[in-house]
From TrEMBL:
Keywords: Hydrolase
GO molecular function, one term: hydrolase activity
Gene3D superfamilies in UniProt: 3.40.50.10890, Ribonuclease Z/Hydroxyacylglutathione hydrolase-like
Classification of source organism: Bacteria, Pseudomonadati, Pseudomonadota, Gammaproteobacteria, Vibrionales
Organism annotation: Photobacterium sanctipauli
Protein name: MBL fold metallo-hydrolase
Pfam families: Beta-Casp, Lactamase_B, RMMBL
Domain Metallo-beta-lactamase: 13-230
Length: 457
């Protein structure tokens, strides 16, 4: 058995790993490189004729975005993933094909049909056997990873009964919308992500309080609140928290000491057709929600589709809203993609509203090196948008509590709770410093484990 990393070796994008057994192999994820890592070619630069299946941990673009290139290289094998990821995958791929490859509607539809013909949705906890041409068989099992809807870590049982676990992206504990990940009982070999291998987040309880504080302050100052968010995962966590805040605050908050702002009328604008479609899928898969979230629904609340949440569909509507907010400075919360400000509708808002000191930007996700989001988080005075220099007068707030990723303490807990193993740990999907920090912390709790860093291979 061999594990080969074809991506996410020295950074957090382009996740793609191969589990090789003799002459055959399976791929785990096939993601796009983003930010500085886009300098790497997207063409599949490794042999695939022996690859018998692709398994997807979840549908973030850095785990699925290179599927078009994989199929272009000739891969026609089955694609195994959870039912919710299978439902989200066409939406995410369609968006990627539009943005990255500029394909028209018909070209996109025929590609999505091809992907659908290869898709094999598997329920959580079920065993999916994968048989190789020589008759040998491995088994895959998807378990909740708590990262985004449908996200899973994958347990493989090999012909010799040993097992290998690929963590995919693990979610933090105690997020209100999804269930927490539960560690596998056994993992002889573990491949684990390390996005936040060197850091701990502010707590989930604190994030709601801080968000409320920033919004309250901003309402008093006027201006829009822009929140760049990944369409899948962060957007829904954020909507969930906004609904919580709005349901708790007193209807009237003072603004400039003059007029009162009615929180119940404060528009929460979801300016992303993709995020809206994905939010619909979150509604359809309520069975995967946490107990707390389900209880709200039973109590008659609508955590993801509350009254003042407005969805912007057309591009004209979007442009009109950007201009209106720029001209009026009226209060509004705008949630738009992309999460790292590398494209999408958030760009027009940033270009129009960054020079306005009343604007507040709340950064809630991981910002990869080389992205505009990363530059904003560093509080640069000037940035480039659409080939124009834009001065940044807006206040930029960074909140780590919305990360979809486990922090160092969550990652350590995930490994500590494995009853048997791991004798070998591969650390992937993190900056080199994060991989090293996680390795050091893991070695302390698992002194018997051999630890390999993907960045050093
Ligand atoms: Zn992810």
């Amino acid at each position: 058995m061999q594990i080969i990393h074809h991506g996410a070796k020295t950074g957090v994008t382009g996740s793609c790993h191969e589990l090789r057994l003799g002459q055959y192999g399976v791929l785990i994820d096939c993601g796009l490189f983003q930010g500085d890592e886009t300098k790497q070619s997207l063409d599949i630069d490794f042999p695939i004729s022996h690859i018998q299946a692709l398994l997807l941990t979840h549908c973030h673009i850095d785990h699925i975005g290179r599927i078009p290139w994989l199929l272009a290289a000739g891969f026609r094998g089955p694609i195994y993933t959870t039912e919710a990821t299978a439902a989200l995958l066409p939406l995410m791929l369609d968006d990627g094909l539009k943005i990255q490859l500029n394909l028209n509607r018909q070209q996109r539809a025929s590609f999505i049909n091809l992907v659908n013909s290869q898709l094999r949705p598997v329920p959580f906890d079920a065993h999916a056997p994968i048989t190789f041409p020589d008759g040998s068989q491995i088994e895959a099992r998807f378990q909740p990873a708590g990262h985004i809807l449908g996200s899973a870590y994958i347990e493989f049982t090999l012909p010799d009964n040993s097992n290998v676990v690929f963590s995919g992206d693990l979610g933090p504990c105690n997020t209100p919308l999804l269930v927490d990940p539960v560690s596998p009982v056994q993992a002889d070999t573990l491949v684990i992500e390390s996005t936040y291998g060197q850091r701990n987040h502010e707590s989930v309880a604190d994030r709601g309080r801080r968000l409320k504080g920033i919004i309250t302050q901003s309402l008093q100052d006027g201006g829009a609140i822009l929140i760049p968010a990944f369409s899948v995962g962060r957007t829904q966590e954020l909507l969930f928290d906004l609904e919580t805040i709005i349901s708790q605050v007193s209807p009237l908050m003072p603004s400039n000491g003059e007029e009162d702002i009615d929180w119940q009328r404060l528009p929460v604008i979801l300016d992303s057709p993709l995020a809206a479609e994905i939010t619909d899928q979150y509604e359809l898969f309520q069975r995967l929600w946490s107990k707390e979230a389900k209880e709200r629904v039973i109590g008659g609340r609508h955590p993801l589709s509350f009254k003042q949440c407005i969805t912007i569909e057309s591009h004209q509507e979007h442009l009109a809203l950007v201009n209106r907010l720029k001209a009026s400075g009226e209060p509004a919360i705008v949630v738009a993609a992309s999460g790292m400000c590398t494209g999408g509708r958030i760009m027009n808002y940033l270009e129009a509203l960054l020079p306005d000191k009343r604007t507040d930007i709340i950064m809630i996700g991981y910002q990869a090196r080389g992205t505009l989001g990363n530059q904003l988080a560093q509080e640069r005075g000037k940035v480039q948008i659409n080939q124009r220099q834009v001065s940044v007068k807006a206040s930029v707030h960074t909140m780590s509590g919305y990360s979809a990723h486990a922090d160092q303490s969550d990652l350590l807990k995930f490994v500590a709770n494995i009853n048997h193993g791991p004798s070998k740990i591969h650390i992937v999907h993190g900056e080199y410093a994060a991989q090293k920090a996680l390795a050091k912390a893991l070695q302390a709790i698992r002194p018997e484990s051999e630890i390999v860093l993907a960045a050093e291979q």
